[in-house]
Amino acid sequence: MKLIRVGQKGQEKPGLISRENEWIDVSSIISDYHANHFDAEIQNKILTLSEHELSKLPRFSKTQRLGAPLLAPSKIICIGLNFSDHAKESNMEEPKEPVVFFKSPSSLSGPNDPIVKPYHATKCDWEVELAVIIAKKCSYLSLDQANEHIFGYCCHNDVSERNFQLERGGQWVKGKSCDTFAPLGPFIATKDEIPNIDQLKLWLNVNDQRVQNGSTSTFIFKVHQIVAYLSHFMTLMPGDIISTGTPPGVGLGMKPPKFLEVGDRITLGIDGLGSSSQLVISDEQHHHIDANCINTILKRS
Prior knowledge:
Strand order of the largest sheet: 3-2-1-13-10-9-16-4-5
Structural class: alpha+beta
Number of strands: 18
CATH superfamily of the largest domain: Fumarylacetoacetase-like, C-terminal domain
CATH architecture of the largest domain: Alpha-Beta Complex
CATH class of the largest domain: Alpha Beta
Number of helices: 6
Helix content: 10-25%
Largest sheet: 9 strands, mixed
CATH topology of the largest domain: Fumarylacetoacetate hydrolase, domain 2
Mean pLDDT: 94
C-alpha cells in the first residue's frame, strides 16, 4: 500500500493510493497517520482493508495538497557519507561505521511545499535520500531481524544549510533542522511494494538540470545494516524516520560550490517512491531581524 496525507497544513487527513491511482480518504477509519499508531492502528486497521471495503470509501481530489505522509515522528535519524563518491566530493574519509546525526521533527514538510531559506542562510544545499520508516519498537536487533521492523520507505530531501552545519561549530543538527528542511513523500510505500531496496535509482534536478544520479546499490552501509546498527545505540520507535544518505552531486561538492537561491526549483525522485518538487522562497517574516543578532546573543557579559 501507499499512504498519503491530504489537505491544508494542520488539517491533513489520512489516505491511500489505490491500484488505479485514486486517492482514497480513510479518515473514517483512522484519525491520522500519527507515529504513535504505526505499531497498532495503521497496521491493524489500514493494511487489512479489502478491495471491497476500499471501494466504498470517498476519494480525495488530486488537486489537493499532499502533506508529509507521517505525523509527529519521535525522531529523524540521518546517515551521512553513505556513498563513497559523496564522501570524496565532501573531502571526507569513507566512514568505517555509519555517521549518525539528527534532524528536528519540526523540519518536516509536505513533498511539494516550498523550502523556506532562512534569512541568514548563505549555503543552502540539496540531498535526495531514501527514508526508512520503522514499524515497531525495537532495540539490539540482529541483521536478520531488521526487515521485520521496517514499515516502509519514502523519498526525502535532506535540505542542508552548509554554513550552519560546517562553519558554525558544534554538531550538524543545526544545519539540518530549519523549518521546511525535510520535505517527505509524496507517499510512504509499505515494504512489500519495494522488493529490491538495494537496487533503487535516486535522482535530483535543480532548475531542470540533473545534478544527482545514484543508486542504493552503491551504499557503503545497506538499509538493513543501518537499522540494526542504530538499534544498538537507541531504541527505535514506530514511525521513526531513518534517512540513509545522499549520492554525489550536492552543491557543496561542485567546483566552484553552488547553492540554492530564492526562486530555484528542486525536483527529485526514487524508483517506486514517486517524485516531489519544491520552490525555494525567502523567509520574509524574519527580514526585520538584525543580521548581527546571533553575535549579540553570544556575547559574554
